[in-house]
Design goal:
The chain contains four helices and eight strands, in the order βαβββαβαβββα. By secondary structure, it is an alpha+beta fold. The chain has one domain: Aminopeptidase. The termini are close together.
Length: 156
């Protein structure tokens, strides 16, 4: 797995009780997915947000990225989603730091496999982290995506 390029990025897992931090996550996602990429506002937030673990990337005091992980009931697998980095912070290692923080989260140490639905333009980014395409192209929210998977066993 690559290391993050920007050492000034810190990742915080959001407490389920923190409405303020959760609002920050949702704002970043709305700005990236709805305002910038044109996805439907009806998709943000969604029904999975209450069950998800949320993560925020900060550069200094500024929130610059967000992501979430939805862990299955047996803690054997998790789906990473809604990985969003504000435009001015892209290409600086923020997304990489978010992904690495999720995979390294001590509370997810028993998760053996992570999956995600990648937008087509992001496939190479996830491949750099060791994710592999595991299915055909499908449409999600009106845009083409592919299923990708990363296994802890394949890396260790």
């Amino acid at each position: 797995m690559q290391s993050a390029r920007d050492t000034n990025v810190s990742i915080v897992r959001v407490s389920r009780a923190s409405a303020t931090e959760r609002t920050i996550c949702l704002r970043i996602r709305y700005d990236v997915f709805v305002t910038e990429q044109g996805y439907s506002a009806a998709l943000e937030p969604d029904a999975w947000d209450d069950a998800a673990l949320h993560y925020i990337a900060h550069r200094g005091d500024v929130a610059v990225g967000a992501a979430r992980a939805i862990v299955d009931r047996q803690n054997a697998s998790a789906k990473i989603g809604r990985v969003a980095v504000i435009k001015s912070a892209r290409g600086t290692g923020v997304g990489l730091a978010l992904m690495q923080a999720i995979i390294a989260d001590e509370d997810l140490r028993n998760v053996h496999a992570f999956s995600l639905s990648a937008q087509m333009h992001a496939i190479s980014f996830y491949e750099q982290l060791g994710f592999a395409v595991t299915g055909d192209v499908f449409e999600a929210a009106g845009a083409p995506h592919v299923l990708m998977r990363w296994s802890r066993n394949a890396i260790d």
